[in-house]
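Re: beginner question about structure tokens

> Can someone show what the tokenized structure looks like for a real chain? I only ever see the sequence side.

Sure, here's an example I had lying around. Input first:
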Amino acid sequence: MTILAFDTATKNLSVALAKNDKHKEILLSHQYAGGKQHGEIALPVIQTTMKELSLTPKDISKIVVGVGPGSYTGLRIGVTIAKTWAESLNIPVEAISSLALMLPNAFLEPETLYIPMMDARRQTIYTSLFGSSGNKYQRITSDQHLAWAELKALILDYLDQNLMINKVCFIGDPVIEEYQKELQSEISLEVVANSTQSSKPHAERAFDRAFEQLLSEVSDVSTLIPNYAHLTLAEQEWQQKQEGQNSGTAEEYIDITH
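And the corresponding structure tokens:
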């Protein structure tokens, strides 16, 4: 049987398929950058990806979904697809942070602080701190919605209390290069930034053993909701208005029978 993983938190729609066994061999992985609303393309893209391997919905035995933070509309669409699919076929769901899916799946560097970042508009960011133990990532903080000054204070406080850290790695949008330079001017540790396409959320990373501790099994699929990183109601309404309502409701696009 096969595991389906996808993330709709950003303009980069990511879909991947892997064998559902202890090795989780990746069968196929696609990234679709920018363009149309996820409400229009997410499910067709997932179905087309499956057809490349001659798979039908009944061949899927588990779903892994990126639950945010990120685009209000994109997350709503992705989580609704996961819930509808899982409830219709009675299969399990695992949730993973979309920020975690930005982490590199290459060799994990010891004593490095990893900081994925997404632009949250109005000079704020979605972010979290991650470290590693052995060859597995470990979460240090929850996903948060912060101004840069707040994040910098959080980083400096963590570094003061964890003197073994010798490198800081920013991952995300090009704007992080400005943050990299500012932080580098204040600390003696090496500070690097990765703002390439590889820094976008990639669904196939959920199959990597390095990410095992960042996955969360959803015990009751009906309770699965996006993680907006504690946006206030006013902020959610503002963001939804900015992204537009022309995608309709998420439920309008869910038909897994084909």
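Each token stands for a local structural state, so reading them left to right follows the chain. Residues 246-250 have pLDDT under 50 and may be disordered.
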